[in-house]
């Protein structure tokens, strides 16, 4: 996003209750101006600063629009901090630390110690080591203010800080090891934090997969999930991390075609997400990842009769969380819908989603998905026997392809086949498909292309 669009996207991301809280908490004469700006930006579908300036041309603040936009952004962020002050333990702890800083400056050391004791207990229970370091740091400052010569106690506090730093360093090293296993090695020291243990276990899981120890890899993830489930408070606090591990297990099951078990586990995790009252952006992305895998099962098991239900469910979910779902995710899902219905030979529904994509394309859309939507469009019209339409579409599609790149040999072969045989009878089509397979044997379709549309499977099905 552009710098001047930041405020627009922030406002668009707000829920109805967050907007209501912001408006109710905005009082005073100075609030009127930025509330007017808030409402004007809120009403826009895409950000248009020229339109905003024209709308407020009679207002004095329009001459300092950048300043008032920054002010409005800070007020919204302040409102969000207040609204979500209890949304997570880390947010609660940061509020306590801020309170301690204020109390310390006022010389209210006894209250500081009381607040720090409360914070330390929460931080330990929820394995918030980074914040625990800051809590110990404030304990040291307060104790030093009260008892400047008590070096033994100060030493004890600083050693506790050192322990939390070591745990944080382990967390950082685990992140690096998971990003680049070849470059960064892991410590053999047992992890105390469940988050650290999760990262170490995922690294172990990947190594087991590379060694082709599939059953061990599966068991590794199952054991890790059980440990999360035995710590319900941590599971609730770090649900997105648990969800990510769960999705890794689902990916394993689908890759190994264990669809029955995958379906059962999908139902279970959906029940767990329903119990999550506030979905963060990270949880929403994991839910979208879950839906992608569920659609993969529907693509592989063409006889499933619940495809329409899951597509309706996905539509509803994305509509509900529109502000937090990247636009290309929605494009990807629509392409999957079209592809699945095509494989199930439900050409009417496939064409519905194809038209929905092609009639609403923008310059920001993924070009690869748009290109293969055009391919899918040709295949659907071929199956429907729309010869005249196909030849018209092919002429336009060739122009599009030539703008992007040279037309590959396999593409020329398939396009020529579609144009020539669309009006053939069944017997002639069978003979033409045999010839098509022979031609593609000499000019094979690359595997990464088959990941978009499995042309080989389509040819095999229609022989």
Tell me the β content: under 5%
Q: Ends: how far apart?
A: 48 Å
- Helix share of residues? over 70%
Order of SSEs, N→C?
HHHHHHHHHHHHHHHHHHHHHHHH
> Radius of gyration over alpha carbons?
29 Å
Unreliable stretches covering 5 or more consecutive residues? none
Kindly describe this structure.
This protein has 463 residues and is mainly alpha-helical. The chain has 24 helices and no strands. Helix 13 (239-255) packs antiparallel against helix 14 (259-274). It is globular, with a radius of gyration of 29 Å. The two termini are 48 Å apart.
Quick overview of this protein structure:
Helices cover 76% and strands 0% of the residues.
Properties at a glance:
single chain; mainly alpha
Protein topology:
Blueprint lengths: L5 H8 L2 H10 L3 H14 L6 H7 L9 H19 L5 H17 L3 H17 L3 H18 L4 H29 L14 H17 L3 H16 L2 H6 L1 H17 L3 H16 L6 H20 L6 H14 L6 H17 L3 H12 L8 H17 L3 H18 L4 H13 L4 H17 L4 H4 L4 H7 L2
Helix pairs in contact: 2-5, 3-5, 6-7, 6-8, 7-8, 8-9, 9-10, 10-11, 11-13, 13-14, 13-15, 14-15, 15-16, 15-17, 16-17, 17-18, 17-19, 18-19, 19-20, 20-21, 21-22
